[in-house]
Amino acid sequence: ELKENKIASKQKELSRILDETRINLKNEGYNSKQLEIQIQKVYEQYKDKPHFIIENNKYNDLEKIIGKLKKSVERVKVTIKEDEKEIRNNVFSIFLEQLRHKVDTSVLVPILKDYLNKQDKLEYNKVFNNHYYYELLELVENGGNYLKLGEPKKITS
Fold first, then answer.
1. Are 108 and 64 in contact, with CB atoms under 8 Å apart?
2. 68-105 pLDDT tens trace
3. How many CB atoms within 10 Å of residue 135?
4. Which of these, 135, 68, 144, 58, lies nearest to 104 by C-alpha position?
5. Domain range enclosing 13
6. Distance from first CA to last CA of the chain, Å, rounded?
7. Which UniProt keywords apply (predicted)?
């Protein structure tokens, strides 16, 4: 009976750890339905040997499981959309700050919004290497006219 209590207590601890793992991965944007199914499989696999997960300082089973879950469970698109929105807002703020001294904000804001909406995927490295900045500067100088942007310039001699 004592042994049964001990195993039941360890199974409860196993369940708690796996629940915590599921919640963390769900918060990272992984599909919660798939996580639930996969975590249940892990529980079934480890319920008779829970110490391999409970004693995660001694065994790396939990670490391996988390790695496998991250590879096998798909991430939900919603969080990707939220990330893109957050990046867009950050980039907007950066450029507003950088360009508001050069251009009136009543002109800058619509051009900036329009420009950012036309970008497929915003990347921070293009912010930091000034790629977007120079395109925006050129746009602002052209009064928001995209046709002139990146157009090959005719060389007349």
1. no
2. 999 999 887 666 677 788 888 988 998 898 888 888 88
3. 16
4. 144
5. 2-72
6. 98
7. Plasmid
